Amino acid sequence: MAQLEHFLVSAEPVLVLLAGLAFFRSGSARRLPALTTYFIVRGVSVVFLNWVLCYNGMPQCGTTLYTVFFYSYWLLFIAAAVSLFFVVQEVFDRVMEPVPGLRRLGLLAFRWVSIVSVIVAIGAVALPAAMANHTQASHDILGPIGLEVARCIDILELCLLAFLGLSIHSLGRSFRSRLFGIGLGFGLQAAAELIATALLSQYSGSALSSSANIFLEGSTLFVLLIWTTYFLLPEPKTESSMLVLPPTSMLARWNSLANGLGQAPQVMPAQPATGFFLQDIEGVVERVLAKNPVIAPR
Predict the structure, then answer these.
(1) CATH number of the domain that residue 73 is part of
(2) pTM (2 decimals)?
(3) For residue 176, what are the domain limits?
(4) What does the DSSP assignment read for 30-46?
């Protein structure tokens, strides 16, 4: 069991670098700058942390190396979580390009939900009882805040995957799209992290902890393989080009309604008073002539 876990942990940096190279080679870095940042942060994190563990072993608590490892781990963890937030927003923005009105409303709702989720997560950690438990366990508040923020990002990733699964065809794309592959990978990774966290929080046995870690690490490698496959396979031209929905589609109608929201109503320009005055005079003349017809002399 320990050997399998060690093999999976050692294989993660290799697959991260492989997925990153496939991503840059596919030319997607220009279209997805947030995902580029995520791959850079993820690569630095796994290379540095695995180098510390492989060549020095787990640092002893209280040493300088342990302090460097501890803060490096959590700072890189939080940086990856923050970059994931922008990746989810970026994928949603690219998928919703055919419907800019709905995209604007969706991004607005997404940002407000994210702000509320982060405030609730930090507030849950800052409660007096939670603060006392975390202080006794780790003597630092950085780790619990990072875990709560990551949990909020996991929920956003699952929501993105559900949205892509339900509406990817309606938006003119298919499951072969790299945007769907990115969302699929993040959704599977988020589900694995939530399951592993739930198991580790309820049961503290060493065997189950090792099994949960193997499950989480195996899921991570599987996601990296999915991304590598999507980036290496050629994407259909229709997936990378700008899509235009037919005006008869339901999404196009909703987009038209969304475009009208938040815009000032159009006011018809006032007609000049002289026009109304001349129209009234013409009406009076016509009524007079109808009652008293003019007979021309013979």
Answers:
(1) 1.20.1070
(2) 0.76
(3) 2-235
(4) TT-HHHHHHHHHHHHHH
